[in-house]
Every structure is written in structure tokens, then in C-alpha cells.
Specification:
This is DUF4169 family protein. InterPro entries: DUF4169. The chain is built from two helices and no strands. It is mainly alpha-helical. The N and C termini lie far apart (79 Å).
């Protein structure tokens, strides 16, 4: 015969495990320091300027349509 399991306790344990998994995921996603965020922002801005500088037509040029 199998082991007797209290379903209420099992549900609570499952919820705790799920919350911890979600917290771990959020720490990895949002848990960055200010210098890391600033570095990523500057990198993305630099890449955007590079791409914008190599476009054939400027997006704000009303004469070309």
C-alpha cells in the first residue's frame, strides 16, 4: 500500500515551490545592478545609431515618398 499524503500540505508545498521558481526567474531577469543596466542601455543606443546612420532614406525626410 502507498504512503498516506495530506493533500492540503501537498498543495501548499507545490505552491511554495512554484513561488520560489518564479522568484528565481525574476531575480535573473530583473536583478541587475545600475551599472549593468546603464551599460546595456548605452550598447543598445550605440547599435541603434549605427543602424540609423546606414539607412538609405531617413525616416523623417518628407521630400522622398
Amino acid at each position: 500500500m502507498g504512503e498516506v499524503v495530506n493533500l492540503r500540505q501537498a498543495r501548499k508545498q507545490k505552491a511554495r515551490t512554484e513561488k520560489e521558481r518564479q522568484a528565481s526567474e525574476n531575480r535573473a531577469l530583473y536583478g541587475r545592478s545600475k551599472p549593468e543596466r546603464e551599460r546595456d542601455r548605452l550598447t543598445s543606443e550605440k547599435a541603434e545609431k549605427f543602424v540609423a546612420g546606414h539607412r538609405r532614406e531617413k525616416p523623417d525626410d518628407p521630400g522622398k515618398r
